[in-house]
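Technical annex, item 7. During the second reporting period the consortium partners agreed on a shared format for inverse folding records so that results from different sites could be compared directly. Each record opens with the tokenized structure and is followed by the designed sequence. A conforming record, contributed by the partner at site C, is shown below for reference.
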């Protein structure tokens, strides 16, 4: 008989007590607080009065999860009953093993709803680790979703002590993952633990022994959680990041030798290097830590994060003098660019100040150390600093095979940094689900009928730069871009071989746009200059160059073109950029970087998006954007340049982004195979690239058989009475939408290849959404149904193009047909098909009753001269006003404050604060009622926004 959840829970508690945890029984809030008082007394060697403890609870019950994480790590200035001051410690972060450890289970919290938590680890009485278990065989995602519900429903209850949880653990016994307390996180941002060789530790018992061991879990909380100031969230390091930082620290403590970390692109090297720098500054033997990046990578967010940790440690100006002053000052951590560091070392004018640092122990950490100029920087540092210790981070090391010659000869990463301290290659990252696989597709013009690729004249620039060839490529992109980017939910990049080729691409896109052939938002950036021979013949990516000559005699064709393209950008986004000098050009670069990265943010406005970014070299390394999923390649990439460029597309984000799409307009098959062999394993192709189109079609058709075994036709879903049967149907159809999501990204996708026609698929989808609606319409209860626990993954079937504006066009046509005296039967059929479509689209279901009301009640009364969309906007506005008034009456709220809260949410994407909601109440609510009222009002506000403001599309006059 399978192990039950209760048995799994008891086994875990027994394991933890064996590891030295004290088992305690705490059934309610009073038990919990009494135990907290006892543990704080024990930890601080003090006796607390009831008054003093009440003061501590008040101190603890402030702010959000991020604020509380800071408070946890600080001491409280406790005013004692006798007038003295005592500095109370909640967590010993310096000597992390010296804390009090307990384990408890089934604590009940009464918030908006009553919840009971599985296993809680208490450190000094505070719940710092929460473990949610599911019996073997159940999806791990169910445990993740349950914790999300606890966060909404009850973690804020009873002084909000459960908002001090730092790490969540979810397990079904066989698979175990952990993640930081960050509400914005999704399931794909949960991690397995592993050993130093990247072998996953998934079994709960093994995980408990290695990760939940008292000293280790304390170390993770005290040293390896990053308080991300920019986004105000907690982040916890993944196992390979932990081992890398530990290896660097040990290297600095024990030796004066260098080292490097090989962690694949997309694995979070900047976070790892940031944490290493942060910890190294605390070592008394280290005078300073210099975190060295390329100027192109020192973006606003990185600068702000480092400045929060160590004020004024980042200087974003070009002033070398500023860096020298920092070097001579008290800052233990300095973030600088490789360009300024070189100037500071070599400049005669700074020699007197720099000479004083010559014999100091300075640790240099280089981000993206595969870049070519590190050879020169390395030479200068070694020559000047006698006690320099250097560490490099790279996703693509330079080996003998891919080393390029320069004035220093062929230098490998090992030559420069000596020992490889930790390794985490792309196959590890894909296996751990930390990055996505790639789908590499070759343009049909370079494929033979049997699927093999033709050999191209690789060095023939005339062949590749032929405008007719580029025009055909642009036509292909226009035809397939929506398919690749899920109707522009994601952005793409196109990398060209030279500035001239890029200019031809941009002009071609622009001309076709003028002809009305597309409405893609195409932007570009490149360094203008004289057209040289193709610089990428060695397959490597050149370094971004921001130097713009201001000499009028140096103006070139590419410079004039760049100014034209920037003018287009300014018109599109209402900006005022230029390339008049290097500083202005760099500001333009940063604006593009920010625009692309901001798509990842929750409150990003769609009108600010860019669809395709055209580049030659810029943004092809070290540029992380989750909402970028496609790379179009017309460039001879090779070795680390190829892996770096491909890896712009493979960041994890939700279910919709199932792979990174690479579309090659050149035959890069051999180059791709060589790069994979060099940076992972000669036999790793199957692990790195998704399967061919036929594989997903076969899997889909197998899934159709399984679906029909449960419900032969869509209407048979109505006969599935038991929850078990409904869950089987949901999981079977969810499997189909996952497979269809991948299949549709292939250019050759056709519904005719599937054993399920499109109409029947849509009918099954309606039944799927019916079940979803039914489970979400009833109020949350303590016990959830089996169906409620399943993740429906609606993002996979939501079509943004089917919005209110689209429906309104159909309604306008319906109205014109009615006025043209179509038969009653034809009218009713058209009306029925519109209502059916509304029912099939997840994002329209909340609006279905209003759209039906408009069609049934208002449409028949329309006068011939009235325009449907104008009348609809009046109807919609009035219904929205009435909904807000209804909410205000039901909850006794001030209408003007409700309207302001909705406006603020639409602007910032952030839910209103508790104080704001309570200030909207006409009568001040009782203390015990406030949390329930707050949750209820926010829920109703979001319903109104979802119903009246989301998925509208562009509403305007019909043509």
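Designed sequence (site C submission):
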């Amino acid at each position: 008989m399978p192990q039950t959840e209760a048995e799994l829970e008891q086994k875990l508690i027994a394991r933890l007590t064996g590891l030295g945890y004290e088992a305690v029984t705490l059934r309610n809030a009073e038990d919990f607080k009494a135990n907290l008082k006892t543990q704080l007394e024990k930890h601080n060697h003090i006796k607390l009065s009831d008054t003093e403890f009440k003061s501590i609870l008040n101190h603890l019950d402030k702010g959000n999860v991020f604020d509380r994480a800071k408070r946890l790590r600080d001491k409280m200035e406790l005013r004692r009953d006798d007038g003295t001051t005592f500095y109370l410690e909640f967590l010993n972060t310096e000597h992390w093993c010296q804390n009090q450890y307990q384990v408890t289970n089934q604590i009940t919290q009464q918030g908006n709803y009553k919840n009971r938590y599985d296993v809680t680890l208490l450190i000094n009485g505070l719940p710092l680790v929460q473990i949610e278990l599911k019996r073997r065989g159940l999806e791990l995602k169910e445990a993740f979703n349950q914790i999300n519900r606890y966060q909404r429903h009850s973690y804020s209850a009873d002084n909000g002590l459960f908002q001090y949880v730092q790490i969540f653990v979810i397990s079904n016994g066989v698979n175990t993952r952990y993640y930081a307390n960050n509400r914005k996180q999704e399931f794909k941002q949960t991690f397995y633990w592993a050993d130093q060789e990247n072998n996953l530790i998934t079994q709960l018992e093994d995980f408990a022994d290695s990760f939940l061991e008292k000293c280790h879990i304390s170390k993770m909380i005290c040293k390896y959680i990053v308080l991300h100031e920019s986004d105000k969230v907690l982040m916890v390091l993944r196992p390979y990041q932990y081992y890398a930082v530990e290896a660097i620290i040990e290297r600095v403590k024990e030796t004066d030798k260098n080292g490097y970390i090989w962690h694949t692109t997309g694995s979070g090297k900047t976070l790892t290097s940031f944490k290493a720098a942060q910890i190294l500054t605390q070592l008394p033997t280290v005078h300073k830590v210099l975190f060295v990046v390329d100027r192109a990578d020192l973006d606003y967010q990185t600068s702000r994060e480092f400045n929060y940790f160590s004020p004024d440690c980042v200087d974003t100006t070009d002033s070398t003098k500023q860096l020298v002053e920092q070097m001579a000052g008290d800052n233990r951590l300095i973030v600088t660019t490789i360009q300024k560091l070189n100037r500071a070392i070599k400049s005669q004018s700074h020699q007197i100040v720099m000479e004083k640092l010559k014999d100091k122990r300075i640790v240099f950490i280089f981000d993206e150390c595969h870049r070519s100029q590190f050879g020169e920087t390395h030479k200068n540092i070694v020559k000047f600093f006698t006690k320099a210790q250097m560490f490099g981070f790279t996703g693509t090391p330079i080996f003998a095979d891919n080393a390029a010659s320069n004035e220093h000869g062929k230098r490998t990463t090992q030559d420069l940094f000596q020992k490889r301290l930790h390794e985490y290659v792309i196959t590890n990252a894909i296996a751990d689900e930390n990055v996505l696989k790639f789908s590499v597709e070759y343009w049909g013009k370079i494929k033979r009928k049997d699927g093999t690729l033709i050999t191209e004249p690789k060095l023939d620039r005339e062949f590749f730069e032929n405008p007719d060839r580029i025009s055909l490529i642009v036509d292909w992109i226009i035809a397939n871009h929506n398919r690749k980017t899920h109707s522009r939910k994601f952005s793409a990049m196109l990398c060209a071989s030279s500035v001239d080729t890029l200019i031809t691409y941009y002009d071609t896109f622009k001309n076709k746009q003028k002809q009305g052939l597309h409405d893609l938002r195409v932007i570009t950036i490149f360094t203008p200059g004289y057209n040289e021979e193709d610089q990428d013949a060695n397959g490597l990516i050149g370094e971004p160059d921001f130097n713009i000559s201001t000499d009028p005699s140096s103006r070139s064709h590419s410079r004039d073109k760049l100014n034209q393209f920037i003018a287009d950008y300014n018109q599109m986004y209402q900006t005022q950029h230029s390339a008049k000098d290097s500083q202005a050009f760099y500001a333009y670069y940063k604006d593009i970087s920010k625009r692309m990265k901001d798509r990842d943010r929750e409150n990003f406005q769609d009108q600010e998006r860019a669809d395709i970014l055209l580049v030659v070299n810029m943004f092809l390394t070290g540029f992380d954007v989750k909402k970028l999923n496609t790379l179009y390649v017309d460039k001879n990439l090779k070795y680390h340049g190829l892996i770096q460029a491909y890896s712009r597309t493979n960041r994890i984000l939700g279910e919709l982004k199932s792979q990174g799409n690479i579309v090659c307009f050149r035959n890069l098959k051999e180059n791709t195979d060589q790069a994979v062999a060099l940076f992972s394993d000669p036999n790793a192709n199957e692990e790195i690239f998704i399967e061919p189109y036929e594989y997903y079609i076969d899997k889909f058709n197998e899934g159709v058989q399984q679906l029909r075994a449960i419900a032969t036709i869509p209407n048979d879903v109505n006969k599935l009475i038991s929850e078990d049967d409904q869950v089987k149907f949901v999981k079977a159809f969810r499997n189909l939408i996952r497979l269809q999501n991948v299949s549709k990204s292939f250019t050759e996708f056709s519904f005719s290849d599937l054993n399920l026609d499109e109409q029947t698929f849509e009918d099954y989808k309606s039944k799927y959404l019916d079940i979803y609606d039914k489970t979400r319409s009833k109020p949350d209860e303590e016990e959830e149904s089996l169906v409620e626990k399943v993740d429906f993954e609606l993002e996979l079937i939501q079509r943004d193009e089917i919005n209110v504006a689209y429906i309104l066009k159909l309604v306008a046509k319906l109205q014109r047909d009615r006025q043209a005296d179509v038969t009653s039967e034809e009218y009713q059929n058209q009306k029925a098909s519109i209502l059916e479509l509304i029912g099939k689209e997840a994002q329209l279901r909340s609006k279905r009753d209003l759209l039906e009301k408009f069609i049934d009640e208002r449409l028949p009364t329309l006068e011939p001269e009235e325009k449907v969309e104008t009348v609809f906007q009046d109807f919609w506005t009035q219904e929205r006003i009435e909904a807000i008034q209804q909410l205000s009456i039901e909850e006794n709220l001030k209408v003007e404050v409700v309207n302001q809260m909705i406006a603020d949410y639409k602007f910032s994407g952030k839910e209103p604060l508790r104080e704001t909601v309570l200030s909207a109440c006409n009568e001040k609510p009782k203390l015990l009622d406030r949390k329930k009222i707050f949750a209820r009002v926010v829920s109703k506000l979001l319903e109104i926004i979802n119903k009246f403001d989301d998925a509208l599309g562009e509403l305007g006059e019909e043509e």
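The mean pLDDT is 85. The first helix runs from residue 5 to 18. All partners now use this format for quarterly exchanges.
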